[in-house]
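seq as requested:
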Amino acid sequence: MTGVSIDGVRVEREGRVVLDVRTLTLAAGRTTAILGPNGSGKTTLLRAIAGLEPLRAGSVSFDTSAAETKRDVAYVFQEDVFLRESVHWNLEIGLRLRGTEARERQRRIAGAASRVGVEHLLERRADRLSGGEGRRVSLARALCLHAPVVLLDEPLAGLDERGYARLIDELPRIVEAFNATTILVTHSRDEALRLANDLVVLVDGQVLAAGDAHAVATNPRVAAVAEVLGYTVLTLPARRIAVPPGGLRLGSGEVECVMTVDRVVDLVGAAEIVGRVDGSVLRIPCASGDARPASGERVTIHATQFSPLD
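struct tokens:
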């Protein structure tokens, strides 16, 4: 298995620093999610790992076993890129360029197409695929390569609700089939936790947290990390806390504050109170038995669970 080591990597564009990673190790054989808001440098980091991004400083190295002597990655781009040929041809071209023998090419294509569920698409022109079909074919193309490192840039981007629901359930099985060090980019906390063993939180081009996904997600130490992870950051008189999704309720409690109600949203079978605390917009579930407050009303809310921030 191949690990990835990033040392002092700095990327600049038009005099502006877009990525500045002092040191980061991505463990061999594990799946790591790079999580961050738009513009945080996630794709730039992925491109740096692939050798596609010019570095102002630093280096990216692959910690290879004796059987893996060269830098070899499979890259699934955020937007599917195909030539105007059949799906089969698009799956085969990468293997041809790597000098893979003909019989082995067909074996790999058949196996990857079956694993990803695109056998019925092999003779279709690749530029006529739907969004979900294109995503699957891109994943099959990466699977064919048997690369020790697989890079996935927003693998679920652009899918409709049905396609998203199907692929996110199947993607862990596909990632397991890569049998590689897999690094994926996402801005979704839920995607990261569903798909990855490890988590890297990237904000403004800098790594603010990295490690085991559960440990990082349950113990944010700084506000910027908490916000990326979907926590609500509240500044109270004596402390600052991060409240996880679903951790706020109406009523008094040990840790409480007052919220000004903007509106109550009827979600059919449930309701949500939208309001503000010190300018921050909060969304609080309203239980079926709770009285629904009016717009402009000030109500007490409390945190059922929270993490203290540094």
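Residues 3-218 form a domain with the Rossmann fold fold (CATH 3.40.50.300).
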